[in-house]
Amino acid sequence: MVILTGNTLTLAEIKKVLFEKEKVEPTEESMLAVKESYNAVKRIVEEERVIYGINTGFGKFSDVLINQKDVKDLQLNLIRSHACGVGEPFPESVSRAMLLLRANALLKGFSGARPIIIERLLELVNREIHPVIPQQGSLGASGDLAPLSHLALVLVGEGEVFYKGKRRPSIEVLMEEGLTPLTLEAKEGLALINGTQAMTAMGVVAYLEAEKLAYQSELIAAVTMEGLNGIIDAFNEKIHLARGYQQQVDTAKRIRAYLSGSQLITKQGEIRVQDAYSIRCIPQVHGASWQALDYVKEKLEIEMNAATDNPLVFDEGESVISGGNFHGQPIALAMDFMKIAVAELANISERRIERLVNPQLNDLPPFLSPEPGLQSGAMILQYCAAALVSENKTLAHPASVDSIPSSANQEDHVSMGTIAARHAYQIIQNANNVLSIELICALQAAEFKGVEKMADKTKAFYLEARKIVPSITKDRIFSKDTEACSTWLKKLDINSFML
C-alpha cells in the first residue's frame, strides 16, 4: 500500500502504483487539511467574496462575476468546454499517473476541493479505471487544461475510460462499479484541471523508461566492446576521478564490472593504441546523460508533490492568492533536457553499430553477414538506426523555447511542457530500438569472436538475449528481431547482471 500525504510521493512509489498495481490511500491528516480547505471555499461562496475561479469566470473572463446560484454550473461548464484535446490517447500508465498525481496535489489542502474528489480519484486508481485522455491540446500553462478536463469528465460520468482492456463510456463503468457520478461544487472543476499533472505524468513514465534504458545501454556497450576487442584502459578509474564527474566515474565502474574476466577486451597497444570515441568515451557521454537524468528525477519528485492550481487557499480561507504555479516551465525544461540526454545515448549507440558492421572499421565479416554478398546480414539494420537517431534530432528541438499567447493575451507566455514530455517519450522509444539493433549486432560480433571468451556477466546476458534473438545464420526479416528485442529490454530486470 502506498500512502499519500501530498508531500512525500517518490518515483519508487509511483512505479509500484503504475506497474505493480499497488493500492493507494491518503493519510487522515491530509484529508483533514482537504476538508478545512473546502470549508474555507464554502464560506467564501456564502459570504459572496469575489475570488477568481470560485465566483468569477476564467482566463480573460476573470473580471466577470458569477451569481451564487450558478457556481456549480460554472464548474461543469469549465470541464466540458476545456475537454477539447485531440490525437491518440495517452498510454494507460500515463492516465493512471495523472489520477494519482492530481489526488496527491489536492491532498496538500490548498485547493478547496471536497474529500470526495480525492476519494473518487483514488477509487479510479485502485479499481484500474483509467480516463481516455487525448495527448494533444495542452500549452502547459494555466496547467494542462485540456488533458485534465478529459480526466475530470470521468468524475461527473462523462467522457470515456479504459477498463479491463476495453474503451467504454465512463457512465457505464461507474454504474457497474457502484460509483455515483459527482456534482462539482465551487472551485472543484478548476482545482482538477489547473495543474501540471499531464506533463508530469508523461514525464514520470518517460523517466522510468529512460533510467532503465540508460543502464541497459552500458551493458549492451560492454558486449559491443567484446565484439570489437575494445581497450579497457580508457575505463581506468584514475582517468575518471581526474575529471571529477561522479556519473562518469560510476559509468566506467559499471563497464569494468561487466567486462571483468573477459578474454576479448584488450590493453592499449596490443591491437591498437586507442579506440574510436564511441567506445573510448562511453563514460564521458553516458555519464553526461546520467547527469541530465539525475536533474530530471529531482524536478519530477518536486513537481509530483507540488500545489500547481490557482488560486491557492491559505490560512483557513483568510488568504486566497492568485499566482502562477500552474506554469509548467520547470518540467518543460527538464523534459527538453531528457530529450537531449536520451537522444545522445542513441547517437553514440548508432556509431557503435557502424563500427560493428563496417568491414573497414573492424576485423569481422562485412556487415556481420554469414555469406557476404549473397547475404546482406546487418547492413540495413544500421540504416534503420541512422533513421531513428535522425528523427530524434528533430524531436530533440526544445519545446520550452516556444510560446504562443492565449486567452486574448491574458495568458501570454506558456511552457509547452506537455509537448516536451510527449516528444521525450517518443525519443525514448526510438532509442530503445537503436539499442536493440546494437545488441543484435553485438551478439553476432561476440559470437564470431568466441562466446566462451566473454566475461561472466556479459556471457550470461548473451545467453539470455539469444533466447530472444537467434544467431544470424542467413538473412531474415530483421524487423521482427528488433521488435522482439525492444519488448524484451523493456521488461528486463538488469539488476541480475549488475550484481
UniProtKB/TrEMBL annotation:
InterPro entries: Aromatic_Lyase (IPR001106), Fumarase/histidase_N (IPR024083), HutH (IPR005921), L-Aspartase-like (IPR008948), Phe/His_NH3-lyase_AS (IPR022313). Keywords: Cytoplasm, Histidine metabolism, Lyase. It catalyses: L-histidine = trans-urocanate + NH4(+). It is found in: Cytoplasm. One of its GO terms (cellular component) is cytoplasm. HAMAP family: His_ammonia_lyase. It comes from Cytobacillus dafuensis. This is Histidine ammonia-lyase.
